[in-house]
Each structure stands twice: as C-alpha cells, then as structure tokens.
Amino acid sequence: MPATATTSRSVLRQAISGQRRQVTLASVLAAGHQGGEALVPVIIGVVIDQAVDGGSVGTLVVWLAVLGVVFAGLSYSYRFAARAAEGASLRAAHDLRLAISRRVLHPGGGAENGKLAGELVNIGTSDAQRVGVVNAALPFGIAALAGVLVSAVALLRISLPLGLLVLLGTPPLLYLAHLIGKPLERRSEAEQERSAHASGIATDLVSGLRVLKGIGAEPAAVARYRDTSQNSLKATLRAARAKAWHDGAVLALTGIFIAIVALVGGNLASSGSISVGDLVAAVGLAQFLLTPFLIFSWVNGELAQGRASASRVAGLLTTPAAVEPGDGELPSPATGNVRLTGVSYGSLRGVDLDIPAGQLVGVVAADPAAATDLLDCLGRAGDPVEGEVHVDGVDLSTVDPDRVREVVLVAAHDADLFEGTLAENVGSAPDEALAASAADEVAAALPDGTATAVTERGRSLSGGQRQRVALARALAADAPVLVVHDPTTAVDTVTEAKIVTGLARLRQGRTTILVTTSPALLAVTDRVVVLDGGRVTGEGAHAELARDRADYRAAVLS
C-alpha cells in the first residue's frame, strides 16, 4: 500500500477521533432522526389497518398523538445532530489548520520546498475544510444506514421477501457507489492541486506587482496567470463533470432499487399476501428509502473529496524537515566566532572562512544564489552537503535550529514586515537601533510616528522605509552574530551613509557579516571576502580589492 494512501487515512482518522464525542453524539441523534423517519410510513400503515378499517375514533386519536410525538422527536434530533456535526467539522478543520501552520512554521523548515505561498494557504484552508467536512458527513451516513436497517426490519415484518430484498440489495448498492466515487476522488485531487497552484501564482504576482510594473513585465505576468487559471478552470470543470456523473449514476441506481422494492410490494398486495395498510407502509418505506440513498450519494462524494484533500494535507505534514534538531549546545553567552570549513551547499563549493568574534566582515558574491546559500548555512535554514559551519567551535548541524537563530540572526534582503504598528514591528527597539537604521526618520515622517499602523508585509511603506524598519528590528535583537543581506538597496546615498555610520557604531565589538555589493557598507568593514563560482577567491580591505581586482570593481563599482 502506498505511503501516501496510508497517511491520508491517518489524517482522516485523526480528524474523526479528535472530535469523537461530537461525531458520536451527532451520529446517535441523526440515526434517531432517520429511524424515526422510517417509522412514519409504518405507523401510517398501522393507523389504516387498526383505526380506519376498524372505524375506531379513539384508536385514530391515539395513533395521531403517537405521530405527533414522533415528528417532535424528528425535529429536535435533526436540529441537534446537524449542530453537533457542523461543530465537529469546524473544529476538525481548525485543528488541521493549526497542525499545518505548526508544520509550515517549524524551525526545521522544508514544508515550503517546491510549493508557492498560495499553495500552502490553499492546503491550510480549502483542503483542511474538506477533510473537516468528513465529520459532518459521517454521522449522516451512519444515520442513513440506520434508516435503511429500520426500513428493512419493518419490511421483514410486513413480508420476508421485501425485507430480504432491502437487506441483501443495500451492500452491493453501497459498493457500486464507492466504485463510482473513485473518479471523483482523482479529479478532486487534481482540481485542488491546480487551484492551489493558481493561488500561488496569483499571490506571487500581487506581491511583486511593483517590480513587474517597474520592468514592464505586466503582459508576460498576465499571460502566465491566464494559462495557469485556464488549467485550473479545466481541472475544476473535470471535477464538476465527475461529480455530476457520480451523483446522477448513484441516483439512477437508487431509483432502480426503489422501483424494484415498490414493484415487489405491489405484487404481494395484489396477491393478498399483505394488507392494504402493509402496502401503504411498504410504498411509503420505498419512497423513504430515496432519502437515505441520496444521503449515501452525498456522503460518498464528500468522502471522495475528503480523501483527496487528506492526501494533500498528509503530503505537507509528512514533508521531511530541511534540518533536524540536535543535542549540541552553543555557549551562553556566545562570543560569535564563525568558521566555515570546506562548506559545499547549493552553489557553494568548498568554502573556507574564518571570522573572529567582534569582527565586521563584508562578503561580495558575484552570483546572487551563492549569497542566498551562504545565508541559509549561517542561519541553519539548510545544512551543508559537505563541510561544517562552526560558531564558537560548535558544529551548527548538531544544534537545535531555534537555538542557532538566537545566536546567529540572519536579516534577509526580502524580510517582511507584519500587519500592526511600526512599534510592534520593531519590538522593543531602543532609540539607538532606530537611529542607526535611519528608521527614526521613517517614524518622524508618519502621521502617528511609531504608533502608525503598517499594512500586511509593510505595503503601506515605500521600499526604502521597509528596509530601514526591518534593519531596525534586526539591530534591536542585539544577536551575538548578525548577518545582513543588502540592507540599503532601496535608500538614497545620504540615508545609506547615515546607516553605514550607525550600523558600524552600534555593532562595534559584535560579529557582523554584511553580504552586499554596496561600496559604502564595504568601506567600513574590517575586511572583505570575495565569493566567485561558489568559492572564496580573495579577501582583503575594500580599497585594496577595488584597486587590484577588476572583477571586484565590476561587482561593486559598476
């Protein structure tokens, strides 16, 4: 059995077992409702035989009172069953969303590999909801089965052939419905995958809208999304056709089965084997059977879609972590000595680098991918394929990622801000951190200063303002080792000069690695390391490298 199938069933089992009490309550109440519905035609048949044919008004009143009680019970049992089932569905979906969020935000990472942000959102919303709906569908499936069993017992009382027809005919019908649901399950999974991909593309395009406009790439972006959207639409239409075929086929099977039950009952009545009241009850039960079989059809469709979504959820939850937790310990407090020995990771090839504690070092990477890979290794977003990264003599691959990031703070170039006020984004940043990053000027320019609300990802701020606020947040953390990637690409030269001076002053005596090609930043470093072709090809003072190396001048001064 494929591992994915096993884990998808596990997701479904956990969703149900997590709400076992609510699902059980809903099942009991819904079964009572369907059982009561099945008793209605039986009671009407008894009324005809005992009260109408017998002409007893008293008996008629008694049985009408019984019908009233049954209908009152039906009303309340359905209401509370629906409430319990919907509650179980919503809670299960909520629990799944929490589990998905924990996996995506896990320090070990890995869940985002190969997936766009919109795809992760789709799994955490639409797929989680579809899995949760299984808790709403299951009680009514059990209730429908209870209705069929009560109908079969009643028909056995009326006529053995009728009862056996229902009892023996229901299992094959349910199995056929299960087989009919297989194409719907496959199409539903494809639909969700295409929909998630389209959401991911849309999210990326919206987040990069300014860049797209800046380089005049709107037509290409529109064409790309149009193709993706059309593929998603085609998958949705295929799923819709599969669902229509599924519902129609199950309804046709159900109609044929009910017609056979009614036909057999009519023949028995015409031969005198059953009474008029029994015939009315049999016909009423045959008509009632349409409801549980329609419920079976709906439940089977929801289960098919739930299994498809559970497979996608399971695939995300079981994604291996990019880095594993370790039992190594970094010293506390850490001094911040950083050493890379023969590190190969991504585009890095045998990188050797020694940064004494307290030194301010610049790193110039001709290939942007090499810069990103270096940041991943230093922040333990990934472990080297070969070689080791040490901080204070401790191999980072042996240390829990959370602890690594307490000591080594990587401030990525594209770090996002959060929705909230400016003060909430920078945390307890002291005035020195705000001043060093020139974020104090940002606060001064806003209507409510640091109390000004910032929209999601800081989109209400300009690119330069976002960079300065993100840098202030990184400086405020006062980490033993700070790795900053291109913190001044969106600011003017005057502001950059202020940031350079403030950063060097504030981080004096603390290990700081500036991965950048900014001449202003590189000029204040103790030394500069040059990465070319994924290898260290030189190091020295910025002025010396700019004078002696043409490739360095091309990377930094062009």
From TrEMBL:
Task: List, for all copies, the residue spans of the domain called ABC transmembrane type-1.
Answer: 25-305
**Which keywords label this protein?**
ATP-binding, Membrane, Nucleotide-binding, Transmembrane, Transmembrane helix
Taxonomically, which superkingdom? Answer: Bacteria
Transmembrane spans = 23-48, 60-81, 136-156, 162-180, 248-268, 280-299
Regarding the membrane, this protein is recorded as: Multi-pass membrane protein
InterPro entries (alphabetical): ABC1_TM_dom, ABC1_TM_sf, ABC_transporter-like_ATP-bd, ABC_transporter-like_CS, P-loop_NTPase, Type_1_exporter
Q: Which CDD domains match?
A: ABC_6TM_exporters
> Which terms in the Gene Ontology molecular function aspect does this entry carry?
ATP binding
Could you tell me which residue ranges the ABC transporter domain spans?
333-558
Q: Where in the cell is it found?
A: Cell membrane
Q: Which Pfam family, an example, fits this chain? A: ABC_membrane
What is the recorded name of this protein? Answer: ABC transporter ATP-binding protein
- Kindly list the organism's lineage: Bacteria, Bacillati, Actinomycetota, Actinomycetes, Pseudonocardiales
